[in-house]
Amino acid sequence: MKIIRTSCFKDPATDHAWFNNWAERLGKLNDRTYQPLEISTALGKTKIWTLGDQASSTTLVIFPGFRTSPLFWDLDRGLDYLLDCKIYLVETNGQPNTSDGNSPDIKSLDYGHWANEVLDQLKIEKAFIAGASFGGLICMKLGMVAPERIHAAFLLNPGCLQPFSLKWKNLYANTLPILIPSEKNIHKFLNTAVFSKPNHQLIPESEKLIVEFQRKVLTRYKDKTQKPYYMHEELKQVQVPTYLLEGDQDTLFPFEQSIANAKKHIASLKEVIVFKNVGHGIETYRPALEKISEIIKQHL
């Protein structure tokens, strides 16, 4: 595996301590503890959080979206519906977290090989996998590399089914907090792109944690990781049962085009579920996670 980019925090010791404290505060808000694991992979150290029933024979591995953490999935205790599974929340290398910042060529299969290595290190024979946005791309790469290890893949507003939208409203909402990472501009981004209030929103304490996280990584993280891309014909190689969960208010990757491309390229697509008045941050929408739980139980 060839490492082509390395991202990092400006002061790793201080910033990593902040990150771990942020995770601890989320745990206190949710009245639970996220147990950390650290494994060695071809991309360096990879941090993983564990949750759920560790004695369960059903395993769910979660890959987060770009510039987020898999812990976002448990904002407002979103993972309550899945606690009967053994859950692994993977902090993807190259993203703003305490894993090493190394990343491979996004258009190679190397992120898939890395994800397969994560399963090896965790001694997971076969699992359900789920990914939001950037994490959806990693799920598809893993589905191409090691389909025999996947019961089913869940894609939540994935970033691999079409190019990033270049519409002015979307570009403005995404660029503004990067240029001026104030709380006001981050709230504007969240309200425009991530949520769709009042249907899709979090309690104030959870939203405050997201704002703090975004402001920290925008000001402290030197991001050199390549962005997700439309995988197009590559998706025809995916043979694992795949479920697509879309929010109809996703401005980053508008849902109609994602659905059309998924139906065109993913022969193993089992179901498309569209949630009304839900933004790009669908992994924070409890009914979407409840749906994943229902499908896993049907498979079992």
Describe the structure.
It contains eight helices and twelve strands. The protein is α/β, with parallel strands linked by helices and about 300 residues long. The chain has a single domain, classed as Alpha/Beta hydrolase fold, catalytic domain (Rossmann fold). An eight-stranded mixed sheet has the order 3-4-6-5-8-9-11-12, with helices on both faces. A hairpin with a 2-residue loop joins strand 3 and strand 4. Helix 5 packs across helix 6. The longest helix is centred in the N-terminal third of the chain and has 19 residues.
Quick summary of this structure?
This protein is an alpha/beta fold and 300 residues long. It has helices at residues 12-30, 110-121, 134-145, 168-179, 183-194, 204-220, 255-265, 286-299, and strands at 3-6, 8-9, 35-41, 44-52, 59-63, 86-91, 102-104, 127-132, 150-156, 221-222, 242-247, 269-275.
